[in-house]
Amino acid sequence: MNIILLGPPGAGKGTQARKLVDERNMVQLSTGDMLRAARTSGTEMGQKVAAVMDAGNLVTDEIVIGLIREQLEADNGADGYIFDGFPRTLAQADALGELLADMGENLDRVIEMQVDDDALVARITARSTCGDCGEVYNDNTKPWPADGKCSNCGSTDQTRRADDNEDSLRTRLLAYYKQTSPLVGYYYAKDDLASVDGLASMDDVAQSISSALSNS
Ligand code: AMP
Description:
- With about 220 residues, the chain is of the alpha/beta class.
- The protein is about 50% helix and about 15% strand.
- It has 9 helices and 8 strands.
- It has helices at about 15-25, 30-40, 45-55, 60-75, 90-100, 115-125, 165-180, 180-190, 200-215, and strands at about 5, 25-30, 80-85, 110-115, 125-130, 135-140, 160, 195.
- It has a 5-stranded parallel sheet with strand order 2-3-1-4-8, with helices on both faces. Strands 6-5-7 form a 3-stranded antiparallel sheet.
- α2 (about 30-40) crosses α3 and α4 (about 60-75) runs parallel beside α5 (about 90-100).
- The structure holds adenosine monophosphate (AMP).
- Adenosine monophosphate binds next to α2 and α3.
């Protein structure tokens, strides 16, 4: 089964993707994580995209499609892929359709995670993650443990993303509405879309996603 998690920054795509990875033998393909890894390892591409990402703009279709192509060609024996943060433009959506078709695969479901914009700003400005395992925390609803250690892996590396500030977030939201939200109509027309309430509790969102996948 191959699925896309679609939604604005802070909708909970990464959190739900991690749950799906734990519960099913699926692989999460997050272009945001791939780009951050390229920056950390200091590749030429990583250096090229750093300023664009920090400002909250989209990097080029060519770069992200190339990253996804590489991962799909690597064929890791997964029982399916969760595309998290990809596609974000109509050109990326067309390219993904072609890549999957070339592999004899289908897109099974596109899950749109709907959230209110005020809630996004509150969520993102309170967000931190574990630099080692990626566990997501929120200063208000799930604070970093008082003993200073990640509850999932025990690491002390609490990190905040450079683009998780209010200015970058406004740009990221604008990019979402201008470039990514047309994908809701695109996948609705292809009869691939299911929408869930992304503001419900983490477990309730997971339950809604499971129901949407069993109906696909
Ligand atoms: P994310 O972790 O998904 O919020 O992505 C962080 C940043 O990486 C975005 O604000 C963009 O600058 C860049 N990025 C991630 N995925 C894509 C994509 N599919 N297309 C273009 N830029 C992307």
